[in-house]
């Protein structure tokens, strides 16, 4: 029977070409969207899940209380934490500290072997690193490869750049240049396979953490429990209940702090908890020390969008199939009279929809293959269309689901007619049938309107982010690393930069204003009654002037006042939290070093708009890792050309690599920007699919009312009256969809906007714009068929067939 059903289904699809084309376009577009989203979701879920000990691998997260009672969350931890946890907590199999230099404003270092200087990103890791993470060692012993402070491990990719091979390079030496205290000659002790694309940590070389600890112990307070410097990762022994374990270790860091400082209870020191490492990419948003979502929200959102777009395409099929059901009634009647069961008819019609879905799947795969490079460009991923064991069952399941959903109502509808009533011509369109069809149209456009409102809200919020006054001027500012030979003459270099044509100002700093900065607790001041977590940067002269920061009290760093080596500037929030009434002149203790407050800077956003402005300091230093340069508007090319020439003069052998500050700022919202772009495409496709169904329904409605239109025209009805007759019912449905969609859209986007501390208000104008857009699209779609029917010759309509 199956071959017979398929043959009949194929003939019916060929017979009704307009119906087939409309449904193929709708279903293939919907399936293509679903496949794109499936590939994106699978890629997101695969991040960091390749480690062998994935189920036992966790990152230590630290919290810190604020003066207002709120709680901040940090991924950096005390430098002593990993060793203490490994030594004192029996449930832990391994614990390692990892320092990523990029986290602290240190850009890529320069690795040199045989006269081939190459930029590389580095990590400093504990000796058990390869027992914790599953980066494959090609050469070297994972038990001791990081024990020696003079060792370095390089990736196979870096090895090919330096030596054109990975063989016989263990024991060779390289020179490393990134920070003065770490510069020197290192011995290659091993080669590891570069992290895969689905690894959140991408790096080229690994040094010993013990070397980093000994080098920066005093500067960064690594031997103090108030420091926040390395990331700490642990592997739990099998069978450990993470919820019970988190309760056990909650106060571990606070207890250690209290013991080290002779305190009974370090109330302002934070607690710790473990988060599964492979979940960190998706669950990276915290509220008051508790995981509150993150990228997982977009994974869920796009998964729901995929389902809704496929449903919209299925609804098109249902509506078109039931609208043209009159043409198949005699077929149903004859089959029933000759003995066909309802079950066989249902299978036949489901077979038709599944066959159509399979054809749509083939078209969808072609669409995905052609557009995947563009999709990768938008999402900044490297997704490949590979027909592996997981992909084939997934796409077949999606297709089968689509076919069954799309064909279920038409199959039940057509197979349920009474054969005698069919053959006598007594079948009439029931009220229930009309209500179902209209309800499906309303459902389609409710989703479309929600998509339109969501796109407008995301767009407006992105506009706010890009135009909001941050408290500093990010426009026409470039930043680049202090590296190589430039480090030996940074002061003279910055002085020469200021003289170049098109340059407004320049300064040196460590860290930046887009999230890379140092800080922590451990700052004391007269009358201190509570602990505060600070963020901050180090800077030379002219940073405030270059960035456009405004002082409310005191002064900036200046050569006119002699050495400013012991000077610091706090922001307004820090001064308020410290309770200082007259801050200028106050001496504070910053990690064992006395500093004098010389000024108070007006609050500015030094992180993303997800976070409120916290306590911040700018500490004077003449040893900095970055340079920021303010360029005159409309003189970028001249200024950059001069700057590149000067850079080569000071730093032979290296080209200037820089970024614009506004681009770095925009990268804080990469996920939101991608969501904004993808949402526009998916919303447009949802509307197009809905309009295809509306176009088909308008066509069949015009055909069904052909004689009525002819009679009305004969008795004097105008074209405008006929068009209104055919469109008013559809417009009423769209208006109902708009009314239903608006509160749903408001609730959805209100929840999304709550993530931002600064957000737009969803006014009536935004919803009015969405309503006008969908009504205009509907009128254009319906009018094509309505006008065609209204201007047709009534003689042809009334002619007896």
UniProtKB/TrEMBL annotation:
<dbReference type="InterPro" id="IPR050250">
    <property type="entry name" value="Macrolide_Exporter_MacB"/>
</dbReference>
<feature type="transmembrane region" description="Helical">
    <location>
        <begin position="349"/>
        <end position="371"/>
    </location>
</feature>
<feature type="transmembrane region" description="Helical">
    <location>
        <begin position="435"/>
        <end position="459"/>
    </location>
</feature>
<dbReference type="GO" id="GO:0005886">
    <property type="term" value="C:plasma membrane"/>
</dbReference>
<feature type="domain" description="MacB-like periplasmic core">
    <location>
        <begin position="446"/>
        <end position="636"/>
    </location>
</feature>
<feature type="transmembrane region" description="Helical">
    <location>
        <begin position="681"/>
        <end position="702"/>
    </location>
</feature>
<dbReference type="Pfam" id="PF02687">
    <property type="entry name" value="FtsX"/>
</dbReference>
<keyword id="KW-1003">Cell membrane</keyword>
<feature type="transmembrane region" description="Helical">
    <location>
        <begin position="301"/>
        <end position="321"/>
    </location>
</feature>
<feature type="transmembrane region" description="Helical">
    <location>
        <begin position="391"/>
        <end position="414"/>
    </location>
</feature>
<dbReference type="GO" id="GO:0022857">
    <property type="term" value="F:transmembrane transporter activity"/>
</dbReference>
<feature type="transmembrane region" description="Helical">
    <location>
        <begin position="21"/>
        <end position="41"/>
    </location>
</feature>
<dbReference type="Pfam" id="PF12704">
    <property type="entry name" value="MacB_PCD"/>
</dbReference>
<dbReference type="InterPro" id="IPR025857">
    <property type="entry name" value="MacB_PCD"/>
</dbReference>
<keyword id="KW-0812">Transmembrane</keyword>
<feature type="domain" description="MacB-like periplasmic core">
    <location>
        <begin position="20"/>
        <end position="250"/>
    </location>
</feature>
<dbReference type="InterPro" id="IPR003838">
    <property type="entry name" value="ABC3_permease_C"/>
</dbReference>
<feature type="transmembrane region" description="Helical">
    <location>
        <begin position="723"/>
        <end position="748"/>
    </location>
</feature>
<feature type="domain" description="ABC3 transporter permease C-terminal">
    <location>
        <begin position="682"/>
        <end position="794"/>
    </location>
</feature>
<keyword id="KW-1133">Transmembrane helix</keyword>
<protein>
    <recommendedName>
        <fullName>Transporter permease</fullName>
    </recommendedName>
</protein>
<keyword id="KW-0472">Membrane</keyword>
<feature type="transmembrane region" description="Helical">
    <location>
        <begin position="760"/>
        <end position="784"/>
    </location>
</feature>
<feature type="domain" description="ABC3 transporter permease C-terminal">
    <location>
        <begin position="304"/>
        <end position="418"/>
    </location>
</feature>
């Amino acid at each position: 029977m199956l071959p017979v059903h398929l043959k009949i289904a194929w003939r019916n699809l060929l017979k009704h070409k307009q119906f087939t084309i409309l449904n193929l376009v709708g279903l293939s577009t919907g399936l293509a969207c679903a496949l794109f989203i499936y590939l994106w979701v699978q890629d997101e879920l695969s991040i960091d899940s390749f480690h062998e000990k994935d189920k036992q691998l966790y990152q230590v997260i630290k919290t810190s209380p604020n003066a207002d009672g709120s709680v901040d969350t940090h991924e950096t931890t005390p430098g002593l934490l990993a060793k203490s946890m490994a030594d004192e907590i029996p449930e832990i199999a391994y614990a390692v500290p990892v320092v990523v230099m990029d986290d602290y404003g240190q850009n890529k270092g320069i690795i040199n072997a045989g006269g081939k200087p190459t930029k590389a990103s580095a990590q400093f890791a504990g000796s058990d690193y390869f027992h914790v993470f599953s980066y494959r060692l090609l050469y070297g012993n994972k038990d001791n490869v990081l024990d020696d402070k003079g060792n370095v491990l390089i990736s196979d990719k870096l090895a090919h750049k330096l030596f054109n091979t990975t063989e016989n390079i263990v024991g060779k030496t390289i020179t490393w240049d990134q920070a003065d205290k770490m510069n020197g000659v290192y011995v290659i002790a091993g080669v590891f396979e570069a992290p895969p694309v689905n690894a959140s940590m991408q790096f080229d070389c690994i040094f010993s953490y013990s070397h980093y600890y000994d080098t920066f112990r005093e500067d960064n307070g690594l031997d103090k429990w108030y420091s926040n410097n390395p990331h700490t990762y642990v592997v739990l022994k099998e069978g450990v209940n993470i919820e019970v374990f988190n309760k056990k270790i909650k106060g571990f860091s606070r207890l250690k702090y209290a013991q080290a400082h002779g305190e009974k209870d370090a109330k302002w020191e934070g607690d710790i908890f473990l988060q599964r490492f492979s979940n960190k990419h998706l669950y990276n948003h915290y509220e008051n020390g508790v995981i509150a979502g993150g990228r997982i929200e977009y994974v869920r959102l796009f998964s729901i969008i995929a389902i809704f777009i496929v449903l919209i395409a299925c609804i098109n099929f249902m509506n078109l199939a039931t609208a043209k059901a009159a043409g198949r009634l005699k077929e149903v009647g004859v089959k029933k009279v000759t003995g066909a069961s309802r079950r066989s008819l249902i299978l036949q019609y489901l077979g038709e929809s599944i066959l159509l879905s399979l054809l749509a799947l083939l078209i969808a795969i072609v669409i995905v293959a052609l557009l995947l490079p563009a999709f990768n460009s938008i999402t900044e991923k490297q997704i490949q269309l590979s027909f592996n064991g997981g992909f084939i069952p997934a796409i077949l399941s999606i297709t089968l689901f689509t076919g069954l959903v799309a064909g279920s109502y038409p199959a039940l509808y057509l197979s349920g007619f009474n054969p005698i009533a069919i053959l006598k011509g007594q079948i009439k369109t029931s009220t229930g049938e009309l209500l179902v069809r209209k309800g499906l149209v309303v459902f389609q456009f409710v989703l479309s309107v929600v998509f339109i409102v969501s796109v407008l809200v995301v767009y407006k919020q992105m506009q706010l982010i890009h135009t909001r006054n941050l408290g500093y001027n990010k426009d026409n500012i470039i930043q680049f690393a202090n590296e190589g030979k430039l480090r030996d003459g940074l002061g003279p270099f910055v002085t020469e930069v200021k003289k170049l044509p098109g340059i407004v100002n320049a300064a040196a700093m460590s860290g930046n204003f887009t999230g890379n900065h140092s800080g922590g607790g451990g700052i004391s001041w007269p009358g201190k009654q509570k602990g505060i977590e600070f963020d901050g940067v180090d800077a030379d002269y002219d940073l405030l002037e270059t960035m456009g920061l405004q002082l409310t009290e005191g002064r900036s760093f200046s050569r006119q006042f002699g050495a400013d080596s012991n000077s610091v500037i706090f922001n307004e929030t820090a001064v308020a939290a410290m309770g200082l009434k007259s801050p200028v002149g106050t001496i504070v203790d910053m990690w064992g070093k006395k500093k004098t407050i010389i000024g108070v800077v007006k609050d500015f956003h030094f992180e993303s708009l997800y976070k409120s402005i916290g306590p911040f300091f700018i500490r004077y230093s003449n040893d900095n890792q970055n340079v920021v340069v303010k360029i005159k508007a409309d003189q970028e090319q001249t200024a950059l050309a001069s700057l590149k020439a000067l850079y080569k003069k000071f730093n032979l052998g290296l080209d200037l690599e820089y970024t614009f500050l506004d681009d770095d700022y925009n990268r804080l919202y990469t996920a939101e920007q991608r969501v904004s772009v993808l949402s526009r495409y998916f919303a447009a496709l949802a509307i197009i699919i809905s309009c295809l169904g509306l176009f088909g329904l308008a066509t069949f409605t015009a055909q069904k009312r052909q004689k009525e239109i002819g009679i009305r025209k004969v008795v004097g009805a105008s074209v405008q009256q006929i068009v209104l007759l055919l469109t008013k019912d559809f417009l009423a449905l769209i208006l109902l969809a708009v009314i239903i969609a608006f509160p749903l859209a408001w609730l959805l986007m209100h929840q999304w906007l709550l993530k931002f501390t600064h957000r737009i208000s969803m006014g009536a104008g935004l919803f009015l714009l969405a309503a006008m857009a969908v009504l205009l699209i509907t009128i254009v779609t319906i009018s094509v068929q309505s006008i065609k029917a209204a201007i047709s010759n009534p003689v042809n309509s009334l002619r007896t067939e």
